[in-house]
Amino acid sequence: MQGAATTKLRNPKPRRGRPSILGKSLAARKMRFGLLFAAPAFFFFGLFYVYPLFQTFYVSLFSWSLLDEPRFIGATNYVNLSNDKEFLNSVGVSFYYAIGVCVAIWVISLGLALIFNQTFRFRQAYLSIYYLPAVISLTVWSLVWLFMYNPSFGIFSEFARWLGFTNVRMLDNPRTAMPAMILLSIWKGAPLYMLIYLAGLRAIPGDYYEAAKVDGANVLQRLWFITLPLLRPVFLYVVVISIIGAFQAFTPMYLLTNGGPGSATRVLSMFIFQNGFQFLKMGYASAASVIFLLILLVFSIVQFRILRFQQRD
Q1: Who contacts 296 (Cβ-Cβ below 8 Å, separation ≥6)?
Q2: CA–CA separation, 185 vs 179, rounded Å?
Q3: Number of independent structural domains in the chain
Q4: Residues 22-73: pLDDT tens digits?
Q5: d(CA 251, CA 11)
Q6: What is the CATH number of the domain that holds 217?
Q7: Cα–Cα dist 312/219, whole Å
Q8: What is the pTM (predicted TM-score) of this model?
Q9: How many helices (H) and strands (E) does the chain have?
Q10: Residue 126, domain member (yes or no)
Q11: DSSP string, 189-253
Q12: How far is Cα 256 from Cα 150, in angstroms, rounded to an integer?
């Protein structure tokens, strides 16, 4: 017996490794066909995502105005950005906008989802009306709000005059320009995240609520101990996606204020656009884009950490 065991240890059964892609087996043929069908996706991903990413970092090491030859300057653009008050202000404005939009969207969209998760008369009609802003193009939506903010005949100006205020110019005042952008974005984004929350609420089994009612739990207790814990994956998804989307905001600021008045609404994407295509400082704008990417990367890492913690929990 001992000799047989020794023989097995000396001559272990060979493990079957992964089939070679150049082999003639069925698994190898499936692998070749899989890579063949995936090749177009890899090609477009590399052409439109990977290559521009490395090209942006490469250009950020140069001084280039698009009209002359690029001149290598190393990390000078990054050093100048760290001392640029306009760049630091744009980062602060981006955080101001993201926090103002996202926190309101989390609360409003969850509240609307809880309302529309109930059964009442004309529910589908109201749901369609509330969801309408989500299907309108952001460009069209921004232009509509441009008319609404018009100081002469806009609805906000008329409402302000009805309250006794005159000469209300929300987009021309540095104190009210960014709140105007935030209000526009909340109204546009809340319906979309409401639908995501609503899908999460529909996925919660009704047996939990029935058991809680039998135990005497009221509405707030059912919300706190059943709905919110089971809705946590959806909430984490909404948090991360809304933050990244808020940092990428560009269209409303470009169409309504062009980053003004002054630099009150010049978010980081607007700063990059102006430096690259208006001031023709392509290397400087590329360096700002790399920093912008790092900011979004931090949020992505936080997302993975939170999801990993959730899976362990």
Answers
A1: 244, 247, 248
A2: 10
A3: 1
A4: 666 777 778 888 888 888 998 998 888 889 889 999 999 999 988 888 899 9
A5: 68
A6: 1.10.3720.10
A7: 29
A8: 0.84
A9: 16, 2
A10: yes
A11: HHHHHHHHHHHHHHTS-HHHHHHHHHTT--HHHHIIIIIHHHTHHHHHHHHHHHHHHHHT--HHI
A12: 10
